[in-house]
Amino acid sequence: xxxxxxxxxxxxxxxxxxxxxxxxxxxxxxxxxxxxxxxxxxxxxxxxxxxxxxxxxxxxxxxxxxxxxxxxxxxxxxxxxxxxxxxxxxxxxxxxxxxxxxxxxxxxxxxxxxxxxxxxxxxxxxxxxxxxxxxxxxxxxxxxxxxxxxx
Length: 151
Known about the structure:
The protein is mainly alpha-helical. Helices cover 60% and strands 4% of the residues.
């Protein structure tokens, strides 16, 4: 059947009734039981990841979103009103975090340090191309002369 979990105040609950179990875990978290929050994470992380990935269309962003959502939920646990299921509250936090991630104006793209810099030369003036070339050459010269391992 269902697994029985014990929390610090000796309240037991089974996995057969997830909504009530979640509520018992939330109460245990509010009393300082970190293991209870870990159990909430285990129960909901896969579902939240699927939701976040559906919104962001990117697994790395989805992982960030889920982590941010759990952090926000943990910090705001005292504000959970218990008028809805805990999972509903978590899903709403996750969707909001995912939407904020998608709406960020500029996502930084990581580029390998040794990757060749390529610039589009569309409608650029010759002196801009020369300046760009000079900058690339300076970067290459400086990076080849420095020992990056000691920094």
